[in-house]
Input
Amino acid sequence: MEEKIRKIKDKYTPQLIKHKGVVGVGIGKNEEGQMAIVIMVEKELPIHEEIIPKSLEGIPTKIKEVGVIKALKIGEDK
Output
């Protein structure tokens, strides 16, 4: 099942990441404890509920506010 979810996530990531405020896509669990595709946003906005589908190919999605994501260089502390 995890392999199926990973393939679906990989298929839709380029499309999802184009939406304003989306900073990443991963795999996790939703509020019901089901495996889900997690769409990470800087700040959760009402528009995200409208533009991000509730499921992708039958796999539920979850919107998660994560703030700004900053890549660090190796050996850099902050």
The chain has one domain: 2-65. The chain has two helices and four strands.
